[in-house]
Amino acid sequence: xxxxAVSSDRSTISRERLVSDLEKLGVQRGDLLNIKVSLKSIGxxxxxxxxxxxxxxxxxxxxxxxxxxxxVSAYPLPxxxxxxxxxxxRWTPSYAGAIANAMIRYPNSYRSLHPIQKFSAxxxxxxxxxxxxxxxSYAYDVLRKMCEMxxxxxxxxxxxxxxxxGTTHVAIGYxxxxxxxxxxxxxxxxxxxxxxxxxxRNWAGGCGFGFNKFIPLYRxxxxxxxxxxxxxxxxxxxxxxxxxxxxxDTLSKDPAFFLCDNPLCDSCRLxxxxxxxxxxxxxxRRLITSPRAFFRRVLRKLMR
Length: 304
Prior knowledge:
- Helices cover 40% and strands 18% of the residues.
- By secondary structure, it is of the alpha/beta class.
- Helix 4 packs across helix 6, helix 9 crosses helix 12 and helix 14 packs across helix 15.
- The longest helix has 14 residues.
């Protein structure tokens, strides 16, 4: 075997390596996991994203459950004729990445009935968590239930690559009722009677990079259960109930805590009642920072 072949073999991450790394991090049989994964950060995985899911299922076993966001794109309302023809369903591809789409197609997987904020799940609690998550549910209700069931957040990838852990959305929208001024977006889907219905996005979002401000607080509260590497990726496992408690406590005192430091961030600078910017200032910053991008953005809005 030549040196190039040896180097290539060493750079490939196998299923067995992933299982070993997950075990060292603290993943156990029977775990209920909310996963957020940067596949690229892990390295070249032999077999691709399905191998990552295989390794996770090897670790949690048949009594465990793996859940991931597999959200679908929403469109400006009123929808164009083209977007109105895109019916959200069980098999609609997700924008959330390779792992999300591997989970959608994974054997014996389930997917939320919610028209937009779909979660995909495999394992013992997969059907229970997803099939009760409908258009009438809070967008992140799957994560709320997982908190009550003793779930763990598993984040694979650096904080700047995989922002947040997931539970912040539950604190913001479900427990604290924080609202956000956002453009009307939605999708068409088939209701229980088989009719095409428009569903409008009706929850607050938030900037994931601002969510990273909670990480030192998680550590202080003992919510981080393990840190290490999965393949080449920095990784963390956290207790969902504890991360949620930290978020509720912090945001109850200071709702603006999760705003990021980017002066060009629409979400943080404009969309909340406690935002600290104005549209004119944001537009001016964009114009002087990147004139080309500014005019492209204006053109896209005019063409909607």
